[in-house]
Q: What sequence folds into this?
């Protein structure tokens, strides 16, 4: 089954927009994912999911529940996104997440263009790509590789075809 999705690659502006525009996360996962659920103006609940890098390893001395807030606090205070102090580590932003994906949270049927417009309206950042993807194939590839493949790269690869 193909799912409409919209994808952004990670950067300072995206992180600050997520914090400012979407507010508190709904959930933080051990694998590094961060999730927000937001209702768009048309009544569709959108899931914004920040995907971890391939082979993600949490910063030493930091709970998975604290990583996002630590990153946002530092970046909001002007810290260098290439040298974030997280627990016992100093890490670049790009060692944590590859990018953000947005899709209809509960399987609502939504056209990719409408999804992109809604997501951009909520986040105020233009996505790099939009279209239809096979989430099952992406999940299978990630699990088969034991997390050593980038979900964002898999999304972008499918969206390029």
A:
């Amino acid at each position: 089954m193909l799912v409409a999705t919209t994808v952004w690659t990670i950067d300072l502006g995206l992180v600050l927009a997520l914090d400012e525009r979407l507010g508190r996360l709904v959930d933080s996962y051990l694998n590094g994912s961060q999730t927000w659920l937001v209702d768009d103006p048309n009544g569709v609940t959108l899931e914004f999911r920040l995907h971890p890098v391939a082979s993600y390893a949490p910063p030493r001395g930091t709970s998975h529940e604290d990583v996002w807030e630590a990153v946002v606090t530092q970046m909001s205070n002007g810290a260098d996104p290439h040298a974030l102090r997280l627990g016992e580590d100093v890490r670049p932003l790009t060692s944590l997440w590859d990018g953000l994906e947005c899709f209809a949270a509960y399987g609502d049927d939504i056209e990719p263009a409408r999804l992109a417009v809604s997501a951009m309206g909520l986040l105020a950042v233009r996505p790099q790509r939009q279209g239809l993807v096979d989430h099952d194939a992406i999940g299978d590839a990630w699990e088969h590789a034991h997390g050593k493949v980038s979900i964002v790269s898999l999304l972008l690869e499918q969206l390029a075809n």
The mean pLDDT is 95. The first strand starts at residue 3 and ends at 9.
